[in-house]
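Thread: sanity check for a docking pose with flavin-adenine dinucleotide

Original post by kr_44:
Hi all, I'm comparing my docking run against an independent structure prediction. Below are the sequence and the ligand SMILES. Could someone generate the full complex and paste the structure tokens? I mainly care about where the ligand ends up relative to the chain.
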Amino acid sequence: MTARRDWLKNAATLGAAAGTGLLLGKAQAQASSATAKPKAAAANATASTASAASTAAPTPNTRTWQNWSAIHQCKPEQWLVPADEAELAAALPRAKAPLRAVGAGHSFNPLVPTVGTLISLDRLSGTPVVDKQNLTVRVGAGMRIGVLARALDAQGYALYNQPDIDVQTLAGALSTATHGTGQTLPALHAEVQALRLVSPDGRVHECSRAKNPDLFDAARVSLGALGVITEYTLRIRPRYMLRRHVWLERTEELLARAPELAAKHRHFELYVLPFTGFSAGITHDEGAAATAQPPEAADENVLRDLRRLRDWFGRWPALRRWAAARLINPAQTEAAFDWSWRLLSTSRPTRFNESEYHLPREAGIAGLREVLATLEKRNEVFFPMEFRFIRADHAWLSPFYERDTCSVAAHALQGEDYAYLISELGPVFRKHGGRPHWGKLHDLKQAELQALYPRFADFQTLRRELDPQGRMLNTHLQQIFGANHG
Ligand SMILES: Cc1cc2nc3c(=O)[nH]c(=O)nc-3n(C[C@H](O)[C@H](O)[C@H](O)COP(=O)(O)OP(=O)(O)OC[C@H]3O[C@@H](n4cnc5c(N)ncnc54)[C@H](O)[C@@H]3O)c2cc1C
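Reply from moderator J.T.:
Ran it for you. Here is the predicted complex with flavin-adenine dinucleotide included:
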């Protein structure tokens, strides 16, 4: 098996070659060894909330919170880390606003920062309860996706789909409409069968399709604006193995085949490698249980090599493309076979900032092409772009609300400029009918969002009923839901 992520054959040699003029000869050298460690998905799990005080009652705070990519910080007056729902319900009416729930802090937008009370459900993540008859699991909203996936696997069950990483909390992921890829598979929140939410006045609300259906459709994707979700009941299925296939192909050829590949495979996605003319296709399909053939995780090698190409040839795009064409070896493929949770989510040791928009399915490829062309006007860009497929659902603020979708994501290395992801890509995404990922960089305000979401006004009505004083709104949410931003 070849590690798929060693695409650029020995880019280190290329560096030496660039200095000596021996580029082509050196480029034929042996592929560099895969140095990336096997995935350790839980490693990031405590990235942002580790500093939460572990006491139940609000305590004066001396600690600073920051998100995963470290572009948002706050020093709340209090942390609230309740041991159970009753404690949360008793504390919320008295807690200092803005009241903001925090998960794993993996959102790129300032959804979480507050000078008031930061609420962590790290202690509401106890043992999941599987209902074998109805194929559902009842689980605390503070549980991490990966912890749930492992617990389900131990009992012979699995989630239908997973995002790229699994360290997010369920509530954080579902509240921002986190998704994986698969033309027939919806985002994670579409698997919610019931949930419990504590509104800022301390009332506990239960909802499902049958009970309180409006709240159910509003709360599944609600950015922490309606209250604090304490528990979910999710649809699950018997555990399953997936076969992964990864290959490299000319971007134009792969884009031409993308609709057919998305229709044929349970999961299909592609990564465009900017300034190379190449993309990677990735499929996962269900296979009968057999001996696992785990993947060799080496995403980091690709990032390292693409970055080197940028660092050495960034100022000369034509030379960069020429070098990439000689270094990328399209004959390399990767195969793996393992339990679904082991393949669908990996780890992301290299930190970055990201913007992702969800485009109507039919606009996806044209949108991707234009975003790529816009990105390639900037020589500093090297991060791969991600292109995925998601099925429609009915949650009011779901970016997939009643439309099948293609999502297009662009990234910038942590510490490098990312403003252009918003200012330059945003208009292109919007031209193609895109709705922004709630957890990823965008600058849309209330009026623009209202135009994109047919049920936005209904959500607002319900939000005002549950939180008439707007105690759940921080500065970012004021711009989305606040009275002065209509
Ligand atoms: C490396 C990386 C990879 C990613 N991959 C994907 C991907 O493949 N697909 C995808 O769609 N997204 C992806 N994301 C985005 C990520 O899934 C979302 O931003 C998600 O919201 C993060 O979850 P979290 O637990 O960190 O929540 P946070 O960022 O801490 O919070 C997100 C929102 O949820 C709210 N919230 C948290 N807990 C509660 C609660 N108990 N009740 C009510 N509201 C609550 C918060 O108030 C906030 O509004 C990725 C992000 C990173 C950094």
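The first helix runs from residue 11 to 20. Hope that helps with the comparison, let us know if your pose agrees.
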